[in-house]
Specification:
Blueprint: H1 9-14, E1 25-26, H2 27-34, H3 38-47, E2 53-55, E3 58-61, H4 63-80
Antiparallel strand pairs: 1-3, 2-3
Length: 82
């Protein structure tokens, strides 16, 4: 069984390619989504409150990690609710 992609090299070159879907958010994008400043989001990443990946000089944040943070904050708020 071959692990190579099916089709000839010519067919693979001509295969339609769809748009690349973004998989990461920047600190600025997450800050805008959450209504925070970029500095606060950076500090949340550094402290580990918000998961992130250091990519060169930038931080990248998966959409699922933003969802985790929001869910965590919502759970904390519900626990504190009288």
């Amino acid at each position: 069984m071959s692990t190579m992609a099916s089709g000839s090299p010519e067919q693979r070159r001509k295969a339609p390619v769809g748009p690349i879907q973004r998989r990461w958010y920047t600190v600025a994008e997450v800050a805008e989504m959450l209504g925070y400043g970029p500095t606060k989001v950076r500090m949340m990443c550094i402290s580990g409150d918000l998961r992130s990946l250091k990519d060169g000089g930038s931080r990248r944040i998966l959409p699922a990690w933003v969802d985790e943070y929001v869910a965590m904050r919502a759970a904390e708020a519900e626990a504190d609710w009288p």
